[in-house]
UniProtKB/TrEMBL annotation:
One of its GO terms (cellular component) is cytoplasm. HAMAP family: HutU (MF_00577). GO terms for biological process: L-histidine catabolic process to glutamate and formamide; L-histidine catabolic process to glutamate and formate. The gene is hutU. Binds 1 NAD(+) per subunit. NAD(+) binds at G125, G126, Q203, E271, Y398, G586. The lineage of its organism: Bacteria, Pseudomonadati, Bacteroidota, Flavobacteriia, Flavobacteriales. This is Urocanate hydratase. Its cofactor is NAD(+). It catalyses: 4-imidazolone-5-propanoate = trans-urocanate + H2O. Belongs to the urocanase family. Residues 213-430 form the Urocanase Rossmann-like domain.
Amino acid sequence: MTFKEQIKQGIPTVLPEPKPYETNINHAPKRKEILSADEKKLAIRNALRYFDPKDHAILAKEFLDELNTYGRIYMYRLRPDYKMYAHPIDEYPGKCEQAKAIMLMIQNNLDYAVAQHPHELITYGGNGAVFQNWAQYLLTMKYLSEMTEEQTLTIYSGHPMGLFPSHRDAPRVVVTNGMMIPNYSKPDDWEKFNALGVTQYGQMTAGSYMYIGPQGIVHGTTITVLNAGRKIAKNKESLAGKLFVTSGLGGMSGAQPKAGNIAGCITVCAEVNPKAVQTRHSQGWVDEVITDLDALVARVNSAKAQKEIVSVAYLGNIVDVLEKFDTENLYIDLGSDQTSLHNPWAGGYYPVELDFETAQTMMSENPELFKEKVQQSLRRHAAAVNRHTAKGTYFFDYGNAFLLESSRAGADVFAANGIDFKYPSYVQDILGPMCFDYGFGPFRWVCASGKPEDLQKTDDIACKVLEDMAKDAPAEIQQQMQDNIQWIKGAQQNKLVVGSQARILYADAEGRIKIAQAFNEAIKKGEIGYVVLGRDHHDVSGTDSPYRETSNIYDGSRFTADMAIQNVIGDSFRGATWVSIHNGGGVGWGEVINGGFGMVLDGSKDAARRLESMLFWDVNNGISRRSWARNDEATFAIKRAMETQPLLKVTIPNKVDDAILDF
């Protein structure tokens, strides 16, 4: 069959032959045993719902074997034979261009160059899934190939519930992931209900089809490292010769060495997974690989002496690196961590003193001992960080739940008041007051044609828009404007594309709208093909996360999730092509609610109307909440927004004199 015929087929009526387990692919770790014998039968019964009863006997045994071997039912047999990548939009079958664009984005998330565990349909973060199994993927693609502009596809944690009648201005797809009743949102609840096949962890952009490879976080990481450098700089000195030490080279954390290079420092990034190191090195995202600690010390000292801009992957544990650098008195200027500590017991964090394979086995076969080892390691990890900060290192929590899980392990990470952490979240210290409060966040786009020349044209368009805006921008946001102009000018030479022809930059509502309008006009003129707009959920409005995105909310509301829910509801009726809402992305199941969207630009008047309405809301919803929390930068930004849009009326907080509360 042709590619289009395979997409339209959905779940085959005749079962394909079983596929061999490919050992050269980076696979998800085995999940721990958590289901009873009766619950395993229920999981298999749930999986068999997708298949004709004539196939149940053979598949039941196969699915039991998958459940016992991997801890999940992935339905490997149904994995497509065609190469998985974002095809040009005109190669997809369908009755609706918006649906074709969504198929493109789904396949981009599962591209082997993009996905962390492609055969398990996991894009990044160890458990950030696009679908739970291959039947869901096949059925979803079939539905999208049949969809008209008068229908909406509803996705329940990877399961395509079906096509429902709607209308042209409704979202074409509505995605929910992991939306648990609150009392059933603990880590083991995810393990259990995911194993049963009734929910999944969508991360932030995996389950909403908006992941664009590590580029998606390179920009934010670059901004963070640049501004962390500015915090420690004397006389505006550059980061040349400064050392940034961190860990993780996975789907998100793999951006760190590239960002360090762009920021102009020396980066050492520890990673225990050889395949992750190999992937990032082969893609050019890290310059060098070292496996010996003495060789690492020598290389860093040489780089410091020469003030090199270089990134080094250390194949090994970050705790060993920190302890070795402490013993050698090797000064670290900037320190962080980006291991997936939202998922500490299932492959997100590997304890020191255990090799990679031993840890993989222990986490599934002896989970209690593995948890003990992880917590011992976190205590050592935090102690090593403390020794470096005592020497002057600026350490920031990268929103990966490092400090949260370290505190739960009994590590010395609390401030003197016993309530706050010793070290700030990077959002508290950098991105919150400098970017999010002003409305700047990760605006991104994908060229649906798949043509590199279209991406170059969109880069040029975005750069011109930003340069024109910068001429009249207020002083408060000039730094943000200039950082982004510098970023987009260097985007091509930094070779940021992995998978689809995609780009990201930080822009406020005005910038996002003007860039999108310019794209839509270029599409109308035939200068470029269709463009898919989106953003990371790690943004101004999309996410309520008390230890990350909303960690600089100080009115007590950082543990509420009204903003993210309102964001998605508002996007859905203002013109988004698809919307998504997730529990758990970024910092852990039960710790955060994330909302996202996708929007297809086709050069039409309808697209022009939708983009202006939706993007204005998508940003200013969050700014208004941040203003109400008494964040001065957000109050400045929302007042400026009200001046440009007379229909916007936002409640501004009155400040209270501290003296009257001195009871």
